[in-house]
Fold each of these.
Amino acid sequence: MMGTKSLFDKLWDAHIVRDLGDGWALLHIDRHLLHDLSGPPALASIANRGMQLHHPDLVFATPDHAVSSRPGRISTTFPLGGKLHGDLSRLSAEMGVRMFDLGQPGQGIVHVMGPELGIVLPGLTVICGDSHTCTNGGIGALAFGVGSSESTHALATQTLRMQKPRQLRIRCTGRLGRGVTAKDLALHIIGKYGTAAGVGCVVEFCGPAVEAMAVEERLTLCNLAVELGARTGIIAPDDRTFAYFRDKPYAPTGELFNQAVDYWQTLFSDDHAVFDREEQVDVSDLRPTITWGTSPEQAITVDGCVPSPCDIEDEAERNALVATLEYMGLEAGQPIVGTPIDWVFIGSCANSRITDLRAAAEVVRGKKVSASVTAWVVPGSENTKRAAEAEGLDRIFQAAGFVWREPGCSICVAANGEQIPARERSVSTSNRNFVGRQGPGARTHLASPAMAAAAAIAGVIVDVSAVSEVMS
Ligand SMILES: CC(C)[C@H](C(=O)O)[C@@H](O)C(=O)O
Ligand code: SF4
């Protein structure tokens, strides 16, 4: 019989502990990740009820959101973060959870360190009290961001109660052009379909353009699934994925690895799988893409212009656009290229992996950051930082005038006391450009690491694919 199951169906079915009826199921959770904002209250709620973790070996913690990224930082460099870090550290120790502490290999943004350590593997269910948990779908895990009560429930039972989501498949055909990345594709997809397109859905990304991506790029693509409104994103694991996990510290080894690969090879959508919605995107003509507004869907190709209120009939929409342009300090209809910037942030769980740092370093090599720009690189994890330093990327960035920082979320969300001042403009490799996201009044343009690096050098937004030396 021809298979009719999607990749998601296979993972869902494999994890059902009990069918609860009406599409609801109790799922086994294979990995539960905790960070310094959502982790301490979840652990405390278990401790305060006199309960124990059901399976502490499947729970892992890392401080990332509220820790300072200042070189030489310690726990209390940002005092509020020090308190959260202390709570996470103490509760983890008391309850048998492995925490990767500051300065240890493993510490980092929770969605970067999971796959990087092989804690997150293809076919596993993964949860974390964080919306970008969807990132892990890039390696073929079924990963959900959860709320605090679900997190507590999972700590106590190692299960999650969930209604089966609908399924959207986005097939990406063609080949990405030079200077065009998974980030550009993600912004393009969100711009094209909108931030509500994925509501209630799991989005499977597939097709030749996805198959051609490095594992890190697939993580970037799935990272932005939540900005499409989706419950999560997922990509079928393939030979590249299997090779990626060959040397990861928590991945199986030897015969167990071979057995794992045998199973991982069954994780794809069958030919006759049925989706609630299917879309196709030809990536061949994509250009570097950047946001101009305060929602990730407000994205244009870098050679484009910001929209003009005159072109909008609906009054409420027109007023919203006027307000957005005012917040962003942009003129209606202006080209985005040439817009002067003040900050560049290369980091976040969207784009802080080794391939991202390499791409940015390639643009920066031998050049200088514009005198008017403050430029930071915040590696996604301690392991990424060390790998980058071993390749000399830190020296390339520092010679150009970038600040080379310690791993964490930093000014992606400005929860660690680091922020972009009001009315200052950043090109950021992160995933959210909401009002006040990088600090009250801060103006954020989301883009790829290469685009951010090129903007840092030029001092204005530029089309990285038009900077000839870069492309040679
Ligand atoms: C603070 C945290 C819970 C939040 C999230 O859930 O995503 C953050 O990581 C973000 O990116 O906005
Ligand atoms: S890097 Fe940004 S998006 Fe990712 S988990 Fe941290 S705050 Fe959230």
Amino acid sequence: MTEQFVTFGDNKLSVADIVDIASRKKTVRLSDSDSFGKKIQAGADFLDELLVDDGVIYGVTTGYGDSCTEPVALSLVNELPIHLSRFHGCGLGKHFDQQTTRAILATRLCSLSKGYSGVSYALLERLVLMLNEDVLPLIPEEGSVGASGDLTPLSYIARALIGEADVLFQGEFMPSAEAFGKLDVKPYKLRPKEALALMNGTAAMTAVACLNYIRAEYLTRLSSKVTSISCYALGGNPEHFDERLFDVKPHSGQQKVAEWIRGDLGVIEEKRNSNRLQDRYSIRCAPHIIGSLKDALPWLKETIENELNSSNDNPIIDPESRRVLHGGHFYGGHIAMAMDTLKTQVANLADLQDRQMALLMDQKVNNGLPANLSGAKADRKSVNHGFKAVQIGCSAWTAEALKLTMPASVFSRSTECHNQDKVSMGTIAARDCARVLELTEQVVISSLLAACQGAQLRAQLNQEQPPLAISKMAEDVGRDFNFLEEDRALEKELRFWLDEVEGKRWSLYSSR
Ligand SMILES: N[C@@H](Cc1ccc(O)cc1)C(=O)O
């Protein structure tokens, strides 16, 4: 039986771990190994010693960022973290949803558990409590440049800990102090450096990146499936996915997508001269389009997981070498690059499906199917419009997705008195990517419904059974989507199918 919790401390966490915590499939716990407890304690002790011995630690006895030249008297050291959490409480925009908020909490906990932030075991325990009891700070999405860490979004976690921020708890919004009260614990008292350690990293963007990655991975499969169904519906040429053809272009992800589509379309009889030797690119080049994303997935995952399992903080407190290491590990350049890349690849899937939709709708190119794939009977044809408006919707959603592909990482602004004079904008890239995914899922799901209807119409026209994998998928879709014969308002049904994608209704191809 697989474990129902994710353990923080000794092991590396994966993207899937964060997603499981975010969706409450798994709870969390700290490693009970001796070495982990000792490591965390050593960091906190080392910081205490430094405070006594040296008297100067950046962010503990100094102001923050460009204010690092401003000494803070020992008598004020305990107030400093509270101030940090307060003055960054200026985020705006929508709040992150519950899933993302859990992912952010877990991602920060992962970094702090590495043991190089000088935080106490008690802080980690409190974060565990918040995750397991689902005490969720309301974190505004906007206001991070993603290079002094996600300071502003993460400040809401710090302020929730001390009892000052609003949280969602047991379905109600309330001050965090009240939520903690219901759990019989007092607000947390931050130790010196702890607010900085909580805030000075990439947890918001990395959490969003984890959630994005899983959605994108699923979309490569779903888009491949829709391509197979569209190809059949259009009377396309299955030879475009020939194994030998793909042997000579050795991108493994592209080969895999071709293999999936080939498998869906079934055995091909030798058809050297079909009526159109070469289908249009949105069918013929689908493995190349979906495959470029598929080929990028391994390095995207590696990049996201490296960031997830990093000590993205400053300064790094290393009890082993007994050094305080000043650097810029709060800089989210890798996530910015990964998310800027991912969003362009995902938007290309929206575009691909929108083009396939265009082929399916248009009698000039759809090889004998009714206009707009209308399933209306003879004398009802004139009043019915099939998927016409759904296609128009797809074009709008695709345009909106494509518009968001402008890279965020090139919009660095010099800020904070030019201390932060080059920043990553990784959080914006990750949020853009999430929105592109949302829009692309809308396009893909609409294309799926249309393609299934197209496949049914093709089978009727040719008086045949579609290939097995295609009829199976079409049948499954048909269980919850009636053949579109008479016009009906489809919004509710489209929303239903979006939920099905979120819940990963189909397992889609056993080979990875
Ligand atoms: N990220 C900065 C710290 C900082 C914190 C808060 C600020 O408002 C500004 C800067 C550093 O580690 O150097």
